[in-house]
Design a protein that fits this description.
487 residues; alpha/beta; Aspartate Aminotransferase, domain 2; 3 domains
Length: 487
């Protein structure tokens, strides 16, 4: 069998694989990594120089030595490099890249300040109070702008990682699907796959020694720079080692893809046991400091929101009351944490007897299999349609948050009849308090299928972090004013 048999072109990627190997195609990953890294370096250098020179010129007295700013600037640039803030593995990763920039910045100022104290240097230190925040914001802004440019290039099919996926057919299909669904945010493009069925077997059923050579041939012909190896039985440990050696000589990166899915990186740690790499998975625990932190965040955000939005809440209440007869607030029983029941508050957006008409409209639902939704629900009032589009009808739920019945961020609060239809695993959504917003809100809202809604909620429950909550709140504003999926 020739190596040609191991090259499995994906139906909609076959043409792309040929195009990528042509001289007119995009630059290889190593080339654009180097160019992009240099752009980041020049940008960082310019920002550091601009910040320090501005602070020196505008805020400090003339006795302050220029050499001190120069030392700080050189230390800053070196620390950004040592902190691998421009590492190609973090390119376009957003939060991870920003975190490395901030860590490098704080380390720089910490070391600089420690040096001033250790050597008892009589140098004004008030510039640190200005340079630290100004530099942090400027560096993050620079990385953000470059990231937007990089994402645009990836959407255009340029600056990509050419990927070969190796492993069992079923797992290969799963990896290919995941890579393809995120290609515009990762820059990865699958050019070929290599499965057990496509490799030559000897007469005794054992895999032929040529397996590694065949895989390398696929990698070479597809001009790949990244190989993703799924968990598989058809490549013994020695063959995997040989594959790694061969890929290293070609300057091709090898990535092992475990069977773990929907798990945040913060929950995974690796350890070596007897020469074997082991992945340890931490289970989610909403106890102790985690519970306290989330509750403190909820109280702070909800109290601030109610205080700042008080005039708007009054205006909406009057508007609802004048638009149609009935109460201003709508109360509905929902299921909260650990299957507890509570009365969820909303501004009334429908006619008073809306629940009586639900049975007649059930067949016209445009929502998913469990939740009823209609784009043009006849029960919605004129003011209610506006409130729903902007999600302003949900603002009274900040009161539910203060009461401890809901959280600012969490799974969607379900109705009791929806919970009755849950499968066993779906009940894990109720391990945390339901939220005013969540991954479902910033991803697709009412346009999501039931399976996708459950997947997002379970991912949130399994992988909660405070920073994740903050990012979801920030993304919610964009989703709300965009209006997509709101009806």
């Amino acid at each position: 069998m020739t190596a040609q048999s191991t090259f499995v072109s994906l139906p909609r990627l076959g043409a792309a694989a040929d195009w990528m190997t042509t001289p007119s195609g995009p630059a290889s990953a190593r080339e654009w990594h180097s160019g992009y890294g240099m752009r980041l370096f020049v940008t960082d250098l310019a920002i550091v120089a601009a910040v320090l020179s501005s602070i020196h010129g505008l805020l400090l007295h003339s006795a302050y030595p220029v050499s001190s700013s120069l030392v700080l600037g050189v230390l800053w640039v070196i620390t950004l490099n040592l902190g691998r803030s421009r590492d190609w593995r973090q390119i376009g990763s957003g939060l991870t890249e920003y975190r490395r920039v901030l860590i490098a910045t704080f380390v720089t100022f910490g070391v600089y300040f420690a040096g001033l104290v250790a050597f008892d240097l009589q140098i004004p230190r008030d510039h640190l109070l200005w340079s630290l925040p100004a530099g942090s914001v400027a560096l993050i802004a620079g990385r953000y702008l470059w990231r937007r440019y990089l994402l645009a290039r990836w959407r255009d099919g340029a600056w990509t990682h050419r990927v070969v996926v190796v492993g069992d057919a079923r797992k290969v299909r799963h990896v290919v699907s995941a890579v393809e669904s995120s290609k515009n945010s990762t820059g990865a493009r699958v050019t070929a796959t290599c499965t057990e069925q496509s490799l030559h077997e000897g007469e005794d059923g054992a895999l032929d020694d040529r397996s590694v050579a065949q895989i390398i041939d696929v990698v070479t012909r597809s001009a790949a720079d990244l190989v993703m190896l799924t968990e598989t039985d058809f490549l013994p440990p020695q063959s995997v080692r040989e594959l790694g050696w061969a890929l290293d000589s070609l300057d091709v990166t090898l990535v092992v893809v475990p069977s773990l899915t929907e798990v945040a990186g913060s929950r995974i740690s690796s350890h070596m046991v007897g020469g074997l790499p082991m992945l340890y998975l931490a289970y989610p625990r909403f106890t102790g400091m985690a519970r306290f932190t989330k509750r403190a965040f909820d109280v702070l955000v909800s109290a601030t929101a109610l205080l700042l939005l008080a005039p708007l809440l009054v205006v909406i209440a009057v508007w609802v009351r004048l638009d149609s007869p009935g109460p201003v607030l709508f109360r509905q029983q929902r299921v909260g944490i650990d299957h507890s029941l509570f009365s969820m508050l909303k501004f009334r957006s429908m006619v008073v007897d809306a629940e009586r008409h639900l049975t007649m409209l059930q067949s016209l639902s445009e929502g998913n299999e469990v939740m009823f939704k209609m784009r043009r629900d006849p029960r919605v009032t004129r003011v209610g349609a506006i409130l729903r589009r902007l999600s302003f009808d949900e603002l009274p739920q900040f009161v539910n948050v203060l009461r401890g019945e809901m959280s600012v961020v969490g799974p969607r609060p379900p109705l009791p009849k929806e919970v009755e239809a849950y499968e066993d695993h779906t009940h894990r959504r109720l391990l945390v308090k339901p939220g005013i917003t969540g991954l479902w809100q910033v991803t697709g809202r009412s346009d999501l299928s039931w399976e996708e809604s459950v997947r997002l909620d379970l991912y949130y429950v399994e992988n909660w972090t405070l920073m994740g909550d903050i990012l979801i709140v920030m993304r919610t504003a964009r989703a709300v004013f965009g209006g997509a999926g709101a009806y």
